[in-house]
Amino acid sequence: MNWKLIDSASEKLSRGLAKGTSRRSLLAKIGGAASFAPFFPVLPVARAQDADVPLSNFARTAQTKDDTQCNYWRYCAIDGALCTCCGGGIHTCPPGTEASPTSWVGTCRNPEDGRSYLIAYRDCCGASMCQTDCHCDGTEREMPAYRPMADNEIIWCFGTKSMSYHCSTAALVGPV
After folding, report:
1. CATH for 57-175?
2. Is 104 tagged catalytic?
């Protein structure tokens, strides 16, 4: 390899750059590039790394037909009585209860289309706990208490008139 040729080419390039730009213009260009950097699509790269992750036990047995069963695909991270068994819906509270303004989140895989979706789990509060056989404890990607937005062990009735827990809903937020 001809090191003298590489050395002279790099010297010529750096001298040309030094002659044609000032420090201020160079800093302005670097600042402009840094401020434009957040507009680059970074997330698809992170998703590509997760594409080869094997399915969890929950994802292998998840179904899309019966939302009163614990293996319904949206319930991968739910903990509590299902509102679908207590007079409410998959994302609506039963009459006489109110939805907590706070929620925890989970990322569940829909077996029909193979895509992952962000699910917001919300507790319905204001009545005693719904006594039903529909009590689920989904722990997929559950996080410890120092990450409370993904911890399903907390009673999320903050901001309601009553801290009495009744049941939990699973609202679809959107694809991940």
Report:
1. 2.60.30.10
2. yes
Contact status, residue 163 vs residue 112, Cβ threshold 8 Å: no
- Residue 89, CB-side half-sphere exposure with 13 Å CA sphere: 4
Please indicate whether residue 73 is annotated as part of the active site: no
- Residue-wise pLDDT for 157-174, tens only, equals 888 888 899 999 999 999
Distance (Å, whole) CA 82 – CA 99: 13
pLDDT of residue 167: 93
Whether the pTM exceeds 0.85: the reply is no
At 117, list the tokens: 């979706």
CA gap 159, 125 in Å, rounded = 10
Q: Which of 123, 133, 137, 151 is catalytic?
A: 123
Looking from the CA of 5 toward its CB, the CA atoms found within 13 Å total 2
Q: Which of 67, 73, 79, 104 is catalytic?
A: 104
- Domain assignments of the chain as residue spans, ordered by start: 3-39, 57-175
Among 155, 144, 147, 63, CA closest to 109: 63
Q: What CA–CA distance (Å, rounded) separates 20 from 12?
A: 12
CB 104 within 8 A of CB 148: yes
